Amino acid sequence: MQQDHVITLLISCLDRPGIVAAVSQFIFEHQGNIVESDQYATARQNGTFFMRISFSEEGFQLNERELVEAFQPIAARFGMQWSVHYSRNRKRAAILVSRLDHCLVDLLWRWRNGELVIDIPCIISNHPDLEPLARMYQLPYHHFPIRTESRAADQQRMLEFLEGKVDFLILARYMQILEPFFVQAYPQRIINIHHSFLPAFTGARPYERAFERGVKIIGATAHYVTEELDEGPIIAQDVIHCNHRDSIEDLIRKGRDVERRVLAEAVRLHSEDRVLVYKNRTIVF
Amino acid sequence: MQQDHVITLLISCLDRPGIVAAVSQFIFEHQGNIVESDQYATARQNGTFFMRISFSEEGFQLNERELVEAFQPIAARFGMQWSVHYSRNRKRAAILVSRLDHCLVDLLWRWRNGELVIDIPCIISNHPDLEPLARMYQLPYHHFPIRTESRAADQQRMLEFLEGKVDFLILARYMQILEPFFVQAYPQRIINIHHSFLPAFTGARPYERAFERGVKIIGATAHYVTEELDEGPIIAQDVIHCNHRDSIEDLIRKGRDVERRVLAEAVRLHSEDRVLVYKNRTIVF
Amino acid sequence: MQQDHVITLLISCLDRPGIVAAVSQFIFEHQGNIVESDQYATARQNGTFFMRISFSEEGFQLNERELVEAFQPIAARFGMQWSVHYSRNRKRAAILVSRLDHCLVDLLWRWRNGELVIDIPCIISNHPDLEPLARMYQLPYHHFPIRTESRAADQQRMLEFLEGKVDFLILARYMQILEPFFVQAYPQRIINIHHSFLPAFTGARPYERAFERGVKIIGATAHYVTEELDEGPIIAQDVIHCNHRDSIEDLIRKGRDVERRVLAEAVRLHSEDRVLVYKNRTIVF
Amino acid sequence: MQQDHVITLLISCLDRPGIVAAVSQFIFEHQGNIVESDQYATARQNGTFFMRISFSEEGFQLNERELVEAFQPIAARFGMQWSVHYSRNRKRAAILVSRLDHCLVDLLWRWRNGELVIDIPCIISNHPDLEPLARMYQLPYHHFPIRTESRAADQQRMLEFLEGKVDFLILARYMQILEPFFVQAYPQRIINIHHSFLPAFTGARPYERAFERGVKIIGATAHYVTEELDEGPIIAQDVIHCNHRDSIEDLIRKGRDVERRVLAEAVRLHSEDRVLVYKNRTIVF
Fold first, then answer.
1. DSSP secondary structure letter of residue A233
2. Could you name the active-site residues (chains A, B, C, D) (predicted)?
């Protein structure tokens, strides 16, 4: 429905008085009706200010080009970094998977269901196994094997394939480490699910190591991928209790429920332009 | 510290464009620096709009009287219900208890600790038992027995005693039903903790009835007291898991942890002017 | 794998000394190796005693007929109600659905994944909508319309169809109230998911009523169906937090996650013979 | 009440058939009535078997000396490590604190309340600050300063002081690292609360580091102290959600609630002989 479309401004700048007044006055002057607004400053004095403000597209008097032009002086006055997002332009995401299907099953179900408002131009995998699942949802599935001996070249090929097709990537238990050049191509636009509560158990085999350590909770963490493995800004995390009776297999089974929920949440937040990054941390509006 | 004091505006009115612009412009004009702002509308079209906006008192050019006067035209233009709150004016709360001490112990510890920024002019009880606890914190303790045969008169006496002393009341497992005239004297200003996840198990003996029903979770609910028992607007709720091994005594023991946490949370929210009431529901900013 | 098969005894009787000794001695004598054992008595004195004890089928010297015969004297001595279950005999469950697919999607995924060790001879619905989902998993789908004017007869037909085919039923958001004669045919063998934390919001439209009441948590309850609507023994429950920003649609969306998790948990517990019923409550081993 | 006293056997040995039968037969022969029993084997084949079995002291025909003597042959047959515990012999715990009071306040309140069934012969601190709290509960408070230049000698003095007075130690945010000789004097009998979800943020300033890392959950871990800092067997863990708005001070405040709950839980489990250690992990019955 047209009347549900919103325009969202994401803003950051040095904090000082008058920002909210200027932005809200701008929206009001051009007949925008604010439907959601959130803000945060990193400190009371001289902090960095972040804002996410959404207003109805219907009735707003400027088109996208006009908006950018008209907002420019305000942005300049406050030294803002800013971007504008139209909800009717759904973000396009490629989902990358390997052999485990639980996150993909969950994402696709939520997507078809309307919980995740994104477009999925393709599903990519280093294995052919999950193609039937993609077909079920009539989504293109591309098999890009990654070979140890040609890993960089293989990823390069994948990167070229994606060129221009997508806005962000979802690693839904994709069992390959992405090369730095690949990560740099999608800064803060690759979402990974790691199967532990980071920063505990970074790297390989977290459930096995959780079992060995005898923890009483296990968890999952969705984060933006950076060049340092499992060190990127955390978007969402959750845990589940476990006990001595849980074998490694039980931890894996219980963990699946947390992984898929946390990844879906992060994808939803990102797709709605709710996540800003500041100093390797996220502000989630 | 002076620089930490904030002024908070609570506003509600019919939703229409321009409210945020007008309010933030007002604050900016008088040199206020916004430190927190949240808003909510009950519907996209023709809803009711609610706003809580806080700005530093330091540097703000108007004193309280001037602020009220200067804001009046804006309030009139939008037909606002509004109030202004200065954080340096701590709210004064009377705590009412009976014999159970867990909520009182917790509230007092958090209070002394700085988690709850309120003044406590008195603790009131229908029993003498918890006086030593009050004394430990050097707080006045008043024993107001409530007798079946003179219940209304007894409460009347209590009400008169409180006159002018407090801004709100905390029923920390106070085992008496307040008379309608008493409740009416403190509309949306009496916080009760009920030991169940409302609306389940309203009324007496909720743990016993939870045990009988064989539930797998028990909970607690903090709400504003209205004339209808356990039907007032809910401020905070939480639960804890239980199982067949839990006797009624175990439920009571586990429940204490939830009760005290939920009550403290509700008191904190109320004391920071974060709770607005709309149609027997709360908006918690 | 043969070596993973276990035999499980479920026992209840008046509590008195010697029960555990007798049962464990019986298992030991016939070369059984206990792999899991749990027990519970409703009271220290004169309570009812419940036990679930599992031992490896491999190496156990008695076949099923011999086991029953040999255990009979022990059962008689203590006045036991008891049953024996072989894990290699997977329980057969019919899943009943209407139009909402989230619980069915989840159950089928967990089933194919090995989390739910059951057979699913058929999926039954009063609507044709979810047939494609059944077909995806190559499961028979039967459309049994229930008409207001012939409700009892329609259900009778369904009951006859199920005759001999299944051990228990799963109501995965099946939007029909089962007739008493139907319920009586599967005592403590029909698992329903109700979309509220019972006993709050029994009956229709719980999310709408949760919204109206302004609760800060919503939940889901899996229970055995009895003739009294939403009053049967509770097997599993869980909740999720919500707030004033959640519309009814948001509650429905958030609730789906809880519903599917709680229903799957209840089905797993039932399928592993972990649930005993006592006075409309469950003992979950 | 005499009738509530129980005798608890803790047993571990190589798993093989007949253990439960032998133990339960032994209890039955001497007129013991089992009130609780739990067991666990680390593997289906050739695992290590653990058992905790409790029976009423009332009516049991053997006194402690006789029990030990009579059980010896069974223990020998199965090569058991075992111990026997009488609930009427409350465990004696020293609580060690520094300046932060939240864990101590909570432990003492639960103790007086009957939630923690232990004796507290003394509270020990390297600071004088919390003495008034001890006095409130009429408990002896001993100030043992620990100086950098005489740390080992200071702890030696403390160790000698404790000699014969206590069964286990509770470090309730005690801000000193215990010397190896001290730890060795109380193997698996010193419970520490660490203010993070281990193994994340071992060592100093975990809240600060959690803030820096931008986690969305914080937690607390109760564990037995071993010579390796924060690496001992974990008894209990829990977490709470946080977000970008939480300053380090907020994390500390929220964390206090988790710390005190997790520590109290671990103390309760230990005091009821519910915790067994195996390979740096705990089995919690």
1. P
2. 230
